Amino acid sequence: MIFQWQLFVLLIGIAALAPMLGQCYEVKCYGNREIRYGWLPVLALTIPLIYLAGTRVNYLLNFGDTSAYLIGFNESPISVSAVINNVTEDTKDVGFSVITAILKRLVGGREVVYFTIIAAVCLICVMYAYKRYSCSFIISAFLFIASADYLQWTYNGIRQFIPVAILFACAGLIVKKKYVPLIILILLLSSIHATALLMLPIIFIVQGKPLNKKTILFILVMLLAIAFIDQFTDIMTNIMENTQYSGEVDQFLNTEGTSIQRVLVYSVPAFGAILFRKRIEAANNPLINIAANMSIVTFGLFTLSAFSSGLLLGRLGIYTSLYNYILLPWEIENVFTKKSAKLIYCALIICYLFYYYYQVEIIWGL
């Protein structure tokens, strides 16, 4: 796993070379001057990430559910009639089954190519969003890697990460309140992983100023769920027993909750959104308003998952937590002085690297 640490060295190199190569430029964003990166440095980072995720079957097969996806790929039929029969017999996430069958027909039995294509779709979507919307692409990319989200979601849970990444790349639709195409997209993506349906209420909840009545109500609901966790678990059990995941209820709900360390890491941008609410409101940047509310939703979901099931509820937060890495650098650069911002960035980098080491080396043992 030594090359995973070399990704941070690559980030330093990209940050140093991009301005020299004319790949940084200023844009005016709701009255503020922000730096954006060209595609050359973005691809210089994205391609190695794709390569590592795509070739993990050669060196990290036993991490997460890679081996399960590998078995699913090898057993996937490629004839149209066999695919139809397979979908008819197993209605769980049929979209992913169809995608797997199509890719297998195109690439044959080459597992590395299969995983590489899926990684490319997911990572290009994520990096595109950071390139377009973040005031600091390098910091956003660093946070995505150092939070262990890169490993967690491109080496594991890829079926869910496909709709997560695509919806994240379509953040502009949420900003512009294009609800009809959003709802159609969410319904289509739910065929790949049913958790995408979570975004149906969220695209409405996160609209408006940070910490508005809708987000406050959401947090209150989460607190009530924590206060009455046994009743909440019973409700979740009843809901899941009537879904495609009925056979996995015990597995989902009998796992330990999300670790307090992980909850705290995901909660930092939400605390900033609450503390700096007035500054965010004054900026009147609709994307940052949405990112602030997404961070508050993330805080609620992960807090609830700490008291219940990390495997079930801990997975839902990824739909909103990717916005944390847009919000956090914005908070640092727009709330603090330039000198203070540099010090905070240094502290942020040190803390996240420590967390990355703890999560990857100690918890996962990679």
What can you tell me about this protein's structure?
By secondary structure, the chain is mostly helical. It is built from 22 helices and 2 strands. The protein has helices at 2-20, 39-54, 66-75, 80-89, 94-107, 111-133, 137-146, 149-154, 158-169, 171-175, 179-189, 199-205, 213-227, 229-240, 249-253, 260-275, 277-283, 286-307, 313-316, 318-321, 324-335, 338-363, and strands at residues 24-29, 32-37. A two-stranded antiparallel sheet has the order 1-2. Helix 2 (39-54) runs antiparallel to helix 6 (111-133), helix 18 crosses helix 21 and helix 21 (324-335) packs antiparallel against helix 22 (338-363). It is globular, with a radius of gyration of 20 Å. It starts with a helix and ends with a helix.
Topology at a glance:
Elements: H1 2-20, E1 24-29, E2 32-37, H2 39-54, H3 66-75, H4 80-89, H5 94-107, H6 111-133, H7 137-146, H8 149-154, H9 158-169, H10 171-175, H11 179-189, H12 199-205, H13 213-227, H14 229-240, H15 249-253, H16 260-275, H17 277-283, H18 286-307, H19 313-316, H20 318-321, H21 324-335, H22 338-363
Antiparallel strand pairs: 1-2
Helix pairs in contact: 1-2, 1-7, 2-6, 6-9, 7-21, 7-22, 13-18, 16-18, 16-21, 18-21, 21-22
